[in-house]
Amino acid sequence: MAKHFALYPKVWGLKTTDKNIDHRRVPNLMKFFERHGEVLAISDNPSDYQSGDIVCWNLGGAITHIGILVDQKSDDGMRNLVVHNIGSGQVMEDMLFDFKVIGHYRYKK
Question: Buried b vs exposed e over 4-29: b needs ≥16 C-beta within 10 Å?
Answer without folding.
Answer: eeeebeeeeeeeeeeeeebeebbbbb
